[in-house]
Amino acid sequence: MTVRFGVLGFGVLGFGVLGPVTAWDPAGEPIALRGPMHRAVLARLIVARGRVVPVGHLVDDLWTAPPEGAVSAVRTFVAALRRALEPDRRPRTPPALLITEGPGYALRAAPDTVDAWRFEQAMATPAALAEALSWWRGPAYADFPEAPWARAERARLTELRLRAVELLAASRAPAEAVPDLDAHVAEHPWREEGWRLLALSLYRTGRQGDALAVLRRAREQLVDRLGLDPGPALRELEASILRQDIPVRSVLADAAADYERNVGARARLDSTVGLLRDLAVTGGGGGLEAAGRHRMATIAAAEELGDPALIARVIGAYDVPAIWTRSDDPARAGKIVAAARRALPSARGAARVRLLATIALETRGATAGPTPGEAVAAARDLDDPRLLAFALNGLFMQTFHRCGLAPERDGIGVELITLAAGHKLPTYEVLGHLIRVQSRSALADFPAADTHAAAADRLAAEHELPLATVFTEWYRAMRQATPSAYRAAADHLAGTGMPGLEHGLLALALLSLDRPDHTLGYGPYTPWAQPHVLLAEGRTEQARDALRGVPDPPADLLSEALWCLIGRAAVAVGDPAAAARTLTALAPAAGQLAAGSGVLDAGPIDDLLATVRRAAA
Known about the structure:
By secondary structure, the chain is an all-alpha fold. It contains 30 helices and 5 strands. 64% of the residues lie in helices and 3% in strands. The radius of gyration is 27 Å and the shape is globular.
């Protein structure tokens, strides 16, 4: 029977480890892998993620007490696998997939041909989670439940699957999420996030008593099974239900009903944008993702009404501060920019400034069209503090056209803090402090950066702005400069609704420490990390080839750090051209640290320039 492997489609060879280990041919038919030892060899090579596994290691992994002739047996298994995986390979033609290199073997599978690897990529896209979870056919590496070589990878994938279930539930309507979450906590009673989401979903459907009962059941399960009290997230939710939300819910429901009866469609759209803005900044990860999704529907509704002034207001009123320069949803950002450009010709005054600021924010570092400086100048003329703060945020997003612009961004942060503090704009005051955390880090002024991080945390707690602390936690991980600190920061980042920040960041941070974990996905940073992955495997020629194809880094907060990766790889493989490119790009940042992101530090730029200068000579 043909296997419909949704992760791949047809026309490509595929491998499955999210269940029993298997392989599919390009037509989707299962490939006969013969016996369990053949599947074990294939699985062990998939765990290695393209790295060479010496024959001796394979022997030790396959047998507790290797028999005489074990090495020959491994070679026989490999030969059989090659025939199964590349049946059309001509005699004496080198294999392209399961190759021999040095002391052992490696599986050179493309990243999109292994279901587990694609599952990791899908974690960054909430819309893909439902399909990705359907790829699981059983426990990961189900054929080898006791194999030591599979234990860590199986545990890691299992954790990812549980997290995906919770992320998917958080993105669904509460009533839809309840049945799946109920089953989830029954099977995994130690998952506090599962209990929290179940109680929250019940509460949001009006079942307050059931929500409190779930929280009591969670406490009993955690105490009885693990001897642990519930964590702060569960305690906070229970206190919120008991103390605050009951009267608020009643007032909000009554007001909403009256509003719906008495206010017209245009006014309701205007008000909806304000609600979405509050949801984005105070609602945590789920709120940010939901606000973005509903924002598109609101813009579409405004365009259907055909009122240019309303369209401009609906697009521009979503003045949610933005600090990270990689979009969480590039496709959605592109649609917002397109709608803003359509509305721009007929907009005047504050409406035009808001559209210009929106374009600057949503295009991130890719400057195009009207300059954000026009928006700032116009906002100053209009003497509107909130409008000026929004325009300054757009200007900040466009100060990445070359390396070394931390002083300019620092000036924007100073103005934002002064402006926001004087006019009670706490979200923009937090933004100003976060900008200065980044810029002072680039300028090696960590005492000042520490002060601004503390100020951002204080304001975030006072005004219920939970996402701000994601950036201060990553900053403190950068200051500690240890893998454990970065891993803890990454754990707290999951589920915040910021895939543009999350995807690949942990792997890149560990690489910046020279403590890489190449089993993690580098996501959008793969082109710049790949030469270093190959160098770690001793594949210098392949690293040199990969470096030749590496593009210039995008104009964003991590551009200096990515240029440092290019420069270090150029020195390692002896590539004068790549070294010269790095010199040209990083020269304006002389005297700074490659720490302007505020989340990782790639070191003093002067030190790198000196090393690269010798390689370029």
